[in-house]
Amino acid sequence: MSIDASHHPALGTTLPPLGLVAPDGQRRTLADVLAGRPAVVHFMRSATCPVCLAHAATVQRMHDAGELHGAAFLLLAPGSSPEAATAAGRAARRAPLAEVWATGDHSDVGLQKIALLQHSGTFVVDDGGAVRSARTSALPVSSFSADEVRAALAPR
To answer: What span is annotated as the signal peptide, if there is one (predicted)?
Structure first.
């Protein structure tokens, strides 16, 4: 079940100025972390979500196969520094490429928590920060599409 696309940044727009916190407590903005790089940005349902971690492993395999074309990969857990540390620890073996941060909550990108269910999503942004692909869902299995990521990152 996908959320209404009007609730998250539309294609061609930029993600909002999110505040991020690292596992060690360091604070940065999304724009500072991206630093003009194209990226795959996955908003996790939770720091321990096995489906989100499986998506991270898929992105790692895509990177290893050269399908990310140099794009960064950010894995964003809801919460604060402890959640970022948990997500980083769980992702380390499966997705060493992932830069893991926490975002407080995901509501700034339209990913609400409804009936205790945190929506998750994957956004692909280009080097100018414009959203090239957006897939969000209440069900983590539907919040990522490798084919959509490949298409959004394909050289133009």
So the answer is: none
Over residues 130-150, the mean pLDDT reads 93
pTM listed for this prediction: 0.92
> Tokens standing for 33?
């972390």
Two structure tokens written together for 48: 């321990």
H/E segment holding residue 52: helix 50-64
Say yes or no: domain 5-153 is CATH 3.30.70.1230.
no
| Closest alpha carbon to 54 in 142, 138, 148 | 142
Q: Domain locations in the chain?
A: 5-153
Positions of E strands within 52-138: 72-77, 99-102, 113-114, 117-118, 120-125, 131-137
CB 35 within 8 A of CB 74: no
